[in-house]
UniProtKB/TrEMBL annotation:
It holds the Pfam family ADH_N. InterPro entries: ADH-like_C, ADH-like_N, ADH_Zn_CS, ER, GroES-like_sf, NAD(P)-bd_dom_sf. It comes from the Bacteria. Keywords: Metal-binding, Oxidoreductase, Zinc. Its cofactor is Zn(2+). CDD domains: FDH_like_ADH2. It comes from Achromobacter pulmonis. This is Alcohol dehydrogenase. GO terms for molecular function: oxidoreductase activity, acting on the CH-OH group of donors, NAD or NADP as acceptor; zinc ion binding. SUPFAM superfamilies: GroES-like, NAD(P)-binding Rossmann-fold domains. SMART domains: PKS_ER. Residues 8-354 form the Enoyl reductase (ER) domain. Belongs to the zinc-containing alcohol dehydrogenase family.
Length: 357
C-alpha cells in the first residue's frame, strides 16, 4: 500500500509499505476513505518531535520510519476477536486518541494519557492514517460510527481539530456567557475555537493572526474583531477593544513564543490562558507580572471525551465547520497537498482533504 512516511527532520517520503496486521484482539484494520494533514504533521516533518525516533530506537534498536496522520474516516476491513461495537463494512470516524478504557487515567477520562499504550499514538508512536490502511487499537473505545448525511469533510475534523479546540481551548479556558476571549492563531484549531466558543455565548471573540485571508474567514465564522499582528500591535489593540481590561480568556493556538507572549499580556485579572498550540521550544513566562493576577493557566492534549457531543452538534447543523475544508486532493497527490498546506498563506489553505476513492 502507499503511505506518507516520516524518516527524520525534513525527510518524508510517499512510498510503498506493508499493509498493517491485527496485533491484538481489540484492534481493527480500516480501509481509509478520507484523511487530512494536521499542523502537528508539519511540526513532525520540521523536527518538532524527535521522540518518535528515540522511542523506536529504544524499543527495537532502529527506526524504519513512521506513517504520518491521526485524522480520518474509513471502512472497517478486519475486526479483532474482542471487538464488539463494530463489524466489517462499518463506516467510521477515527479518533486521534486511542483509549483502553480501563486504566487509572482512562477511568478519570484522561484518555490522552492512557497507561495501556493508548493516548495520541496514531502517526506518532504507531503508524497513522495517511495510508491506504491503518490499524486502530482499542477500537471499541476509539471509533465512532459515521452518521448518514453528515459531510465527510466535517467528519474528518471530528477526529482531532474540533475536539481539540473545544476541550483544550474553550473548556479549559472556562469560557462563560458574556466573556471576552482572544484566540491567537487562526489555523484549523483556532477556527475550531471560534466555532465552539459560540456554544457558550461569549460577548466578544477577538481573533489574531498574520494572514488576512484567515482573518476574513474568522469574521465569517463569528469573530467580532480581528487583528493582523503583522501590521498592528496586537496587545495594544486588544486592550483598546476591551477598554484597557484585557480578556477573560486568551487561547494560544499556534505553539510559538510570539503567540504565547500575546496571550500573557492580554489576559485580565482572574482570567484564563488556555495553551492549545504544540510547542517545540521553551517560551518566556512573565511570572514576575502574572503572579499577582490570580490567573488559571492550562495546557493539555485532547482527551476526545466531547467528540460524541460535537458529533451530534455537527449533525444538527449548528457548527458550519465544513467551511474549513478549502482544498481537496486525491491520495496520489498527497505530496502536492503537503506542499500546499506548508505554504498555507500563499495558497489560501485552511484544511486540505485527501480522498482515497
Amino acid at each position: 500500500m502507499k503511505a506518507m512516511v516520516y524518516y527524520g527532520e525534513g525527510d518524508i517520503r510517499f512510498e510503498e509499505r506493508e499493509k498493517p496486521q491485527l496485533l491484538a484482539p481489540t484492534d481493527v484494520i480500516i480501509r481509509m476513505t478520507k484523511t487530512t494533514i494536521c499542523g502537528t504533521d508539519l511540526g513532525i516533518w520540521k523536527g518538532k518531535n524527535p521522540e518518535i525516533e528515540q522511542a523506536a530506537k529504544a524499543k527495537t534498536g532502529n527506526f524504519n520510519g513512521r506513517i504520518l496522520g491521526h485524522e480520518g474516516i474509513g471502512i472497517v476491513d478486519e475486526v479483532g476477536g474482542a471487538v464488539t461495537n463494530f463489524k466489517k463494512g462499518d463506516k467510521v470516524i477515527i479518533s486521534c486518541v486511542s483509549r483502553c478504557g480501563i486504566c487509572e487515567n482512562c477511568q478519570k477520562q484522561l484518555y490522552a494519557h492512557c497507561r495501556n499504550g493508548g493516548g495520541w499514538i496514531l502517526g506518532y508512536m504507531i503508524d497513522g492514517t495517511q495510508a491506504e490502511f491503518v490499524r486502530t487499537p482499542f477500537a471499541d473505545n476509539s471509533l465512532y460510527l459515521l452518521p448518514e448525511g453528515l459531510s465527510e469533510d466535517v467528519a474528518v475534523l471530528l477526529s482531532d481539530a474540533l475536539p481539540t479546540a473545544h476541550e483544550i481551548g474553550v473548556q479549559y479556558g472556562n469560557v462563560q456567557p458574556g466573556d471576552s476571549i482572544a484566540i491567537v492563531g487562526a489555523g484549523p484549531v483556532g477556527m475550531g475555537c471560534v466555532l465552539t466558543a459560540q456554544l457558550y455565548s461569549p460577548s466578544s471573540i477577538i481573533v489574531i493572526d498574520m494572514d488576512d485571508n484567515r482573518l476574513a474567514m474568522a469574521r465569517e465564522l463569528g469573530a467580532t474583531h480581528t487583528i493582523n499582528s503583522a501590521r498592528d500591535d496586537a496587545v495594544s489593540r486588544v486592550l483598546e477593544i476591551t477598554e484597557g481590561r484585557g480578556v477573560d480568556c486568551a487561547m494560544e493556538a499556534v505553539g510559538v513564543e510570539a503567540t504565547w507572549d500575546i496571550c500573557q499580556h492580554v489576559v485580565k485579572e482572574g482570567g484564563h490562558i488556555a495553551n492549545v498550540g504544540v510547542h517545540g521550544k521553551p517560551v518566556k513566562f512573565a511570572l514576575e507580572k502574572l503572579w499577582i493576577k490570580n490567573l488559571t493557566i492550562t495546557t493539555g492534549l485532547v482527551n476526545a471525551n466531547t467528540t460524541g457531543m460535537l458529533l451530534k452538534t455537527c449533525c444538527s447543523g449548528k457548527l458550519p465547520i465544513d467551511k474549513l475544508a478549502t482544498h481537496s486532493f486525491g491520495f496520489s497527490e498527497l505530496p502536492k497537498a503537503y506542499n500546499v498546506f506548508k505554504h498555507a498563506a500563499d495558497e489560501k489553505a485552511m484544511k486540505v482533504m485527501i480522498d482515497f476513492q
